[in-house]
């Protein structure tokens, strides 16, 4: 039976570590418990897929849930493309992503310095006035100064056509 199959991997925890109990819940429902909420719209952006799940009074509305391949991996690819075409630090120094380690570096840059702008044009104009660029230190201790790349890369979540994806953006799915 499926119940026995689900319990089998947990057996060592109960027997060896004397675990008192366990709860298996929907991945989209668990953040609700953390926030002490019962109704919300959960947008879970992963590396390969984004899941948008409405929850009402503690119940997951599966028939209203949406999925898309517009995800963090697509943002990584967009950021890699921007870093390879932009003159960084005012020099003709570009970052070319050729290996898996390079892609990990791009992912780290994305997670540490990128953000979603409410209005891309307004953010671009602010950056022209305010020179408080974002700094990232590369593994060789070279400091990288990023500008528009910080908010242009995540824009792919809302307008995937910028990278040639036919999928609708997250804002359309919500």
Tell me the structural class.
alpha+beta
| Average pLDDT level | 82
- What is the tally of beta strands? 6
- What's the helix-strand series? HHHEEEEHHHEEHH
Our estimate of the beta-strand percent is 5-15%
Q: What's the helix count?
A: 8
Main sheet properties: 4 strands, antiparallel
What gap, in angstroms, lies between the N and C termini? Answer: 37 Å
Give the C-alpha Rg. Answer: 21 Å
Q: What is the overall silhouette?
A: globular
Uncertain runs are none
**DSSP helix fraction:** 25-40%
Description:
By secondary structure, the chain is an alpha+beta fold. It contains 8 helices and 6 strands. A hairpin with a 2-residue loop joins β2 (about 50-55) and β3. α4 (about 70-85) crosses α5 (about 100-115). The longest helix is centred in the middle third of the chain and has 14 residues, at about 70-85. The relative contact order is 0.13.
């Amino acid at each position: 039976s499926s119940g026995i199959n689900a319990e089998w991997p947990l057996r060592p925890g109960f027997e060896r570590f004397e675990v008192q109990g366990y709860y298996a819940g929907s991945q989209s429902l668990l953040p609700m418990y953390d926030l002490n909420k019962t109704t919300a719209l959960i947008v879970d952006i992963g590396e390969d897929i984004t899941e948008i799940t409405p929850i009402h009074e503690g119940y997951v509305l599966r028939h209203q849930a949406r999925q898309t391949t517009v995800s963090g991996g697509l943002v990584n690819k967009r950021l890699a493309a921007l870093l390879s075409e932009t003159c960084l630090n005012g020099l003709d120094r570009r970052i070319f992503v050729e290996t898996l380690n390079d892609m990990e570096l791009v992912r780290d840059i994305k997670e540490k310095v990128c953000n979603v702008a409410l209005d891309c044009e307004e953010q671009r104009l602010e950056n022209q006035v305010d020179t408080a660029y974002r700094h990232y230190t590369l593994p060789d201790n070279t400091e990288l100064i990023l500008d528009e790349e910080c908010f242009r890369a995540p824009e792919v979540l809302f307008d995937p056509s910028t990278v040639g994806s036919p999928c609708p953006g997250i804002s359309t799915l919500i």
